[in-house]
Amino acid sequence: MAATTEEGRLEFKHGHLAGQTGLAFAIGMGEAGEGHATTVVHLLTGGADCLACVRTSESSFKDAETEINDHEDAITCLAANRISVGVVPTTTTTTTKKNNLEKPGEDNKTKEDSGKGGMTDLFATGSEDGFVKLYSFPDAMFEANAARFELPVRCVDFAPDGRTLAAGGDDQGVRLVRCAVAEKRGGEEGERDVSCEVLRTLRTVGRSTKTVRFDPEGDYIAAVSSCGVLQVWNSKTGEQCLTKKQSAPKFDSSSPHCCHVSWHPEGIQLAVPGPSGEVAFLERLSWEEEFVLPSSADGEKEGHRAACTCVEISPNGLYAASAALDRRVVVWRLSDQKPIASRSADSVVCNLRWHPTDNALCLTDDEGSISTWEGPVASDMPHPAAVAAEEGEEEGAAAEGGREDSQGPSEGGLGGGAKRRKVSRLGKIAESDSEEEEGGEGGIAGATGPTPPAALAPSRRAQPCFQPGATPAGNSTRRFLAYNTAGCVSTLRGPDYNSVEVSFHDVSARNSRIPTLTDYFGFELGALGPSGTILASRARGAGKPSVVMYRPFESWAAGSEWTSTFPEGEEAKCVACGSSFAACATEGYLRVFSLAGSPVAVISLAGRCVALAASGSHLAVAYVEDDLAGQIRFQQYDVPSGSLVASGPMCLSRESELEWLGFSDDGVLASWDGETLRGYFPESFGGSWVPLFTASAARKAETEHHYVIGLDISAREVFCVITRSKAHFPQVYPRPIITTLPLLVPVVRNDAEDDNAAAMHQGLMFHRLDRQSNAVGITQADVEMDKTLLRLIQGCIRGDRLEAALSYASELNLQRSLQGALKLAVGSKKRNLGERISALLNNRESVVQAVNMEKENNANANIFSRKRVYGSTQ
After folding, report:
1. N or C: which end of the chain has fewer CB within 10 A?
2. What is the pLDDT of residue 697?
3. Which parts of the sequence are annotated with region: Disordered (predicted)?
4. What is the widest separation between alpha-carbon atoms in the chain?
5. Sorting pLDDT into bands at 50, 70 and 90, what band is 506?
6. Rounded distance, CA 282 to CA 71, Å?
7. At residue 403, does pLDDT exceed 80?
């Protein structure tokens, strides 16, 4: 099965037409003579010629033993299952003595079959015709259509149980299909019926799903989209565990390159090909990056120089093979992340698989050709298909740090610096490191315990609903339900009931202390308004519906406190409180109440609510219109008039989520995503989000995080709590300290200007925003803006920058300010500038006269019309 030349190049033979090629190994039973059974390895391939081929090892997998031509369009993917058939021999007819591939004493060894080491009785093909078809193995007879898509299918994979299939493609979502196999009634012996049922559809990000892989224990599913987004779901519940953008290369949906990911045989790691040639290994459960196989850009000479197309971990987890757009295939040793062999090709390798039992790799390229690389691992190194326990006995170094029979693989298979783990048959990981056993950061409490929130990597998915100003419960009995510039609402969790307390930063603001509320409802949401507090609880099963309560600070009449119970199936998601109303968002509804408890409005939202905010008479709602796209939009209402003030998309920083939504002290809608604070100005360029504060400019240490609670644009201040722990939110005790930081629009100054001019530009920027937001009186804003402009004009005249001076003069609002600019030009003997400013002044005066004359004519016309009306009625 020679596949390499002396020059270190892979030798390919024709397999299919150019395009995406499916590749999978199938294992069947064979006869070894004298009644002994043996396993026979077959290679399944499919390509753009619409053919699916079953290839045997006798021809080095080059010649097809069986061809299937059932699809009407190109076959893009293949998968073969493994089912348990009891105890089977590990002897294979494809073993060879070349490069010491045949292990001594291997002929008589047996192993218990599981999903990873069982026999194949079904294989699936996916095609651009939208069908996923099932075939029996080894006779390759059509069994059933597992699924039908509207658009081309790009990837399929079987779960370890051999009866669950995952399929994805250009349609949105990955479908999980259950394949039931039963003996055919009334049929001949061996005949069976195969029926397929869609269990669920997992929501995906991006236009197309390029690859999908089950983990070896069947608990998780990983998929990569054409836009380079990696997603991981719990296969049992459908819950999304990870969404990570820019983790893989971006390939067009019709491209033959598919970003194939690979799981460690024990399920402890997920290998993901990177966009720059690297391969990242993510730890199971925490989904944090554990180590990376470096690219040439990272200093590894033998590393890839372009985006990776696929990665595959060897059957024993000691090695990994990767291919990239640089037309190279590299084999890595995972213990030290070093390359041990590499080969080049004439075309880009887009798919590869390790041989289940031999020291060999099978590969296909984007031309549809097939190659077998024999002996990618040197003969003096552990065999890639041998189990880790056998390698631990054979290798002296491995024996020193080896594992017991009941343990997972040794440290050599986990990468440098990785901790040893115990891996149960359920695939749950328990750290043996003493710090993590004692509950250190990132530790897993037990083999079957839940994953702590701190261990989860930050994800970028359709953002769930959150309450601005609230903090998560965590392990503490105290948490904030609301926290803003006025005060806070905190809750103390008790065994039978909770206690809700309202306090203010300025104690003198209230004549009396707000009494503590005994909470029997289990309030989890809260908002602090100018006159009272709104609280809400979630539904807690049958007989315990969601409840919303409003509690005023002061009341002149009895019964001012009120509650409202939502119908079964409707649950409060977010609350807000204004000067004359209280609001609550539920599934699809925005409910507005008066402060007396009467319903004012019920509005159907255009999507799922993300956050609510209120100030004065204004109410803002942020919502996700489409969970797949994840775009957050907003609507701002004036509640007393029942009018829509503004609406549109929200702006968020890359890889960030909305952390706070609120209003400034002067009534400007603002948002904070952990990196940038933005204000919405309806009069600025037709309605724009303007950056007012950036964390990167204010951060003094990498560990600092700004928990924003409010801002004042007219005073140019943002109010926040600075935290330096991984928990980016304040604790109830000790009471957090509010820090005031200056608002700074990220302007870029002219190189010819000094620091004083840059500061004046900041002031000018905020004066413009003041005029647009009407935060202060127009006349006052005009005066302040003109003062700054005149200072800038004076500096430009001194620096002989006359064009800039004229530009600033054209922005002056008041006529007397323009006259002052003219005096500065004349006094500095800048004749040309003075003439142009004089022209501006004359034009401004003529415009003012024309406007005044039009107003006078309109006033006279109104008087005459009124006289005619009066005369006609007499």
Report:
1. C
2. 87
3. 93-117, 372-476
4. 127
5. confident
6. 37
7. no
H or E segment at 285?
none
Per-residue pLDDT reduced to its tens digit, 561-584: 999 999 988 999 999 999 999 999
The answer to whether residues 535 and 551 touch, using CB atoms and an 8 Å cutoff, is yes
Q: Which of 40-44, 190-194, 663-667 has the lowest mean pLDDT?
A: 190-194
Helix (H), strand (E), coil (C) string for 618-633:
EEEEEEECCCCCCCEE
Percent of the chain residues topping a pLDDT of 70: 79
* CB-based contact 478:470 (threshold 8 Å): no
End-to-end CA, the chain: 114
Spatial separation of the C-alpha atoms in residues 307 and 272, rounded to whole Å: 11
- Closest Cα to residue 600, out of 640, 573, 567? 640
Per-residue pLDDT of 268-322, as tens digits, reads: 999 999 988 999 999 998 899 999 999 887 778 888 988 999 999 999 999 999 9
Fill in the DSSP letter of residue 515: P
Q: Which residues contact 333 (CB under 8 A, 6 or more apart)?
A: 318, 319, 339, 340, 381
- Residue carrying the six token digits 């989890």: 524
Which of 52-56, 110-114, 206-210, 776-780 comes out lowest in average pLDDT?
Answer: 110-114
Q: At what angle do helices 755-773 and 778-798 cross, to 10 degrees?
A: 160
DSSP tag of 67: E
Q: CA nearest 727: which of 483, 448, 543, 454?
A: 454
Q: What is the DSSP string of 215-232?
A: -TTSSEEEEEETTS-EEE
Query: Span 693-719, mean pLDDT?
Result: 89
pLDDT, averaged across the chain: 80
Q: What Å distances lie between residue 467 and 480, 482, 574, 590, 612, CA to CA?
A: 10, 8, 6, 15, 7
Residue with tokens 């290839």: 55
Residue in 721, 709, 671, 706 with CA at minimum distance from that of residue 692: 671
pLDDT in tens, 100-132: 333 333 333 333 333 445 789 999 999 999 999
Q: Which residue has the tokens 């501006």?
A: 840
pLDDT exceeds cutoff 60 at 496: yes
Burial 368-381 (b: 16+ CB within 10 A, else e): bbbbbbbbbbeeee
Residue 329 has phi, psi (to 5 degrees) of -120, 130
Distance CA 249, CA 226 (A): 8
Name the phi and psi angles at 648, rounded to 5.
155, -175
Classified as helix, coil or strand, 82 is: coil
The tokens for 116 are 């990873």
**pLDDT tens column, 430-466:** 333 333 333 343 333 333 344 433 333 333 456 889 9
Strand 75-80 and strand 122-127: the pairing is antiparallel
Cα-Cα-Cα-Cα torsion 495, 498, 503, 505, nearest 10 degrees, comes to 60
Q: How many CB atoms lie within 10 A of CB 188?
A: 6
- Tokens 């969601």 sit at which residue? 546
DSSP 342-371: EEE-SS-EEEEEE-SSSSEEEEEETTS-EE
